[in-house]
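Appendix B. Extra example for self-study. Work through it before the problem class; the solution is given directly after the inputs so you can check yourself.
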Amino acid sequence: MTTVPSVLRATAITKRFGDLLANDRVSFEVQPGEIHAVVGENGAGKSTLMNILFGMQRPDAGSIEIDGVPTELHDAADAIRAGIGMVHQHFMLVPEFSVTRNVTLGAEPRRLGFIDAKASERALAEPMALLGVQFDIRRKARELSVAQQQQVEILKVLYRGARILILDEPTAVLTPQETAELFRTLRSLSSSGVSVIFITHKLREVMEIADRVTVLRQGRTQGTFPLAEVDIPTLVSLMTGRSDVELGRLPRASHGRATRLRVEALSGRQFPDSELRDVTLHVREGEIVGIAGVDGNGQNSLVSLLTGGARPSVGSIHLDDVRLTGRSVGEHRQRGLGYVPEDRQADGLPLHAPVVEALAMGRLLSVRGLSLLGPAITRPVKAWAREMISRFGIKVTSLDTVPDSLSGGNQQKIVLARELDAQPRLLVMAQPTRGVDIGASEGIYTSILDLASKGAAIIVVSADLDELLRLTDRILVVYRGAIVAEFAAATTSRDELGLAMAGVHQEAA
Amino acid sequence: MEWLEALLTSGVRMTTPILLAALACLPTLWTRDINIGLEGVMIFGAFFGVALGIATGSALTAVLLTLVLAAAAGLCFGLLVTKLKVDVFVGGIVLFVFAGAATAYLLDILFGVKGNLSDPGIPVLSSLEVPLFEDVPLVGGIVSGHSGLSWLAVILAVVLAVADRRTVVGVRFRAAGSHPEALSAAGVSVVKTRVIAQVWCFALAALAGIEISVGQLGLFTVGMVGGVGFVALAVVIFARGSVGFTVLVSVCFGIATAVSFQFDKNVVPHELTQMLPYAAALIALVFISRRSRRPGRTLVGV
Amino acid sequence: MSNLVEVSREAPAPHGVGRALIPVIKALVAPAAGLFVAIILIQSGGFQPLPTILVGLEYSLGSVEAIARTVAWGLPLCVATLGVVVAYRTGMFTVGAEGQIYVGALVSAVTGAYVGGLVPWAHQALSIALAALTAGAVSAGLGWLAAHWDVDIVLSSLLSNYVLLGLCIFLASGVFNDPAAEAPGATLPIQPSAEFLSLIPRTQLTVAVFLVAVLCIGAWWILERSVVGYRWRMIGESPRFATSSGMDVPRWQVLSLAVSGACCGVAGALLVLASQGRFASEIAIGLGWIAVMLALMGRAKPLLAILWVGVYSVMQAASRKIEQVADVPSDLAVLVICTILIAAAAAPGAVDLVVSTWRRRRGMA
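Solution. Structure tokens for the complete assembly:
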């Protein structure tokens, strides 16, 4: 038992969304100056818990104590006053405001309603020193790199005098090197007495930085452990409730010799990503190629050019010797493209339409002429939809269920079912398992491998280096719009990839 | 020369309601709550300005009372759109249609007339003569002889320009529209910010309506606002939310409207000249959108 | 954008009886609010509300002739509303119905008056077809600008109303004017061959009712069941999803606006050919805006929208009668429908607010 009083204690927190019990009597506490990791799969209830701690959601039951004092948090302002600060996974920065203005938002030094600009700038000095960073605070938020934006978020929290920092999946968008930098900052903060609550599903990082770990599964706490008492396999089995989760390389059939996808000297851009310059790559039939890189270095441009969302300015793309001109997504799809978009909720699914309609899009797009006036969701279509649902293990109660109410994994299965049914010869996937729990991810990998064994060429763009290492044959690294390195997935490492992603070129062996 | 002076004087008179309505609209553009029922508020303002003027016998009292009513209405609308989550598009349409029907209704019930209320007894806002300038050619026409609301419009434009980037309120308006979650996470009530923008909008739009009825014509006719509210919407869209450009574009439209009155009836029929401002706004809208080619601010949804 | 026409996201309902009751309350709030307003307004005029309302309802529904009269009045509104519904399905929130109705009315009036020597059905068909084509072209033009040049459809359609109205009135007061007519800006009366055959005398119900019935069924089938409707629905639901799936979204949006404009044009033609007999400046004031509101009430679903058209037609007829007997201006119908629409839009949010406040009180106790 600890003798030091907790700086924050949450007891029996319960929160329900409709039928979903997001937090079920969750309890945990944090010591001063501690780095406390909260882990769980997607949908385990971590984000809900953090939103409650930050006052952005109100619990249905349970209590919160700060420094031993019961505190009610009605909104973010209450949390800030209580010394809690949150850095969200999706940054809360106003893009067109300067760093100064973003940091001081809501607590600007003022005189008679006017903002005191000079005082604002002076006020940033201390948090920047505490964090150990330095940059031009007059720049607009949208001009900063992702890692810098995250630093601004932390500055915001420190400016408000936070003693408890909550970080929601902070390393999802960082390179390995930037992650190391972040951890250095967090250790420095924790040694000056700031407590850090760190939400993640990346267990490697937990083992590196945390003092204690709390595991959540399906809305309930599975326990809080000092770091010495756990290791990665233990954590995985606590998170998933299973002990057989495989984390190594996935078994692969060997792929064919013929080149399926031929990209030659390709240049083009999908705003706001970087411009792709003079990219050449070939993918053989049955091969899975991974694309790694810091977000904004050209991956989105590449995806857009491959899928027909943008037209190349120079160069060409050929799929089975048929040119993909970039005129439209429809044309590329007709010539054999399958596409699983990064933002499945915006681009991959109609969130509020019945599942059968989400599945049937591919089929219904090929209807022509007078049949357009014919019925859309016919009995054959429904039968086909039911077959897809059972084949891909999509958990829905009826054909009319709406994707909005489904988990990330189920939603992704719908997208995959639809795309794979069209038997694409080239499948482009971006962040295929983002927001998907481990069980569903395994199912998705199985489907990808299955498609590969049938001879399709597959390109996977992912920020999850572990995923690329497990799934792909080769990994290409993009940096500033060019492919700067190529590695065989079986023999490379995260560090090697990280260096290439940061633009440090390897000497050829 | 006299012709030019008449044109400039007329230009100021035409600009005032447009400018007031556009300034009304700006904060709601910043908070992304832009409300196409602006025209409806102007109709209500025009009506109540006249009705309360008859009731109280004083134009100034009518203006002040209408302002209070408008602010209250803005509060209600703001709460409808924020707390009760009514879509701003739906709210705006209802506001517009309701205003037309309600004012016709009240016109009948209260004054027993249909379509037109004119009475020499309706108090009109007195025009302000500026002693030093009133006889100066050209400038005199611009500066002197207009209702107090024209001066108010200028003052409010300056206020808004200063507030935009330098005050806490201005920053909050902008943040509420650009990234409301960021504002909320910073501990500021986004609801309050949006509601304040609506209160401002309704108050100034009512003033714009009053300017037309009580400030200039001294009567109320169904349809007298005639789309000025919609022109003001076009103005703020062109100006992309900048106060300076809003003033500039409003003045352009005001002068264009004044010019359209100058055309001799026999040369160009008045139905065509009346539609000139709208056609001009439409053409300008197309050109502005064509050149910018980025997702524009839509008046609908987020 | 599709938020306008979807069911609102709901906060968790209390368990048991409350859960079943909530949707019922949400559905009833709006009509109840409308009724409440009607009662208040009639009462303030010094008359007994319920008997007065019954008199009005009898006038609108109380006999075969009454029903025929009400239906006949509602036919143009029905077609226009369906037109707006089609556009809203694809997320194109146009408010240009008013202008397009006018265009249709003028074109059909001119065709009806000046084109001679045609068999009646051919004359009517030609007039309607030209009206639909012209109005459809206007709407498609606005749609093209919106889909390809990012011109905001709400603002452009708003401004187009004034431009089109001005143009129509100018033409009707000038080139096509009938100097013998009493009303200002009126065109020549249409020839007998262009008039729709009357079904029930003295009720203005013509064979146009069959045309409209076919249009209603067609609209339902196309929007709810057909592949075209599916594509439109997906665009309205998620334009990004439609684009990623390979659909030519701009093309389909322009098509929906073309159809929408055509419907409004037909509505205008019906006003002339099946009712007024000529174009006049005051022919359709406000009808386009009512169509927009009814489309919103129907949440862009054809059957629901048609239902509301029926309700409004009854209210409109009733309020005309009420004006006669109770000195309450006939704007009453418009005021009531506005109340109903706002109440319908606010009800989900209001109920959710009440429910979540109540739950919080209970939960934190």
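Self-check: The interface with chain B takes residues 54, 56, 75-77, 79-80, 86, 88, 92-97, 101-102, 105-108, 110, 113-115, 156 of chain A (CB under 8 Å). If your reasoning did not lead you there, revisit section 3.
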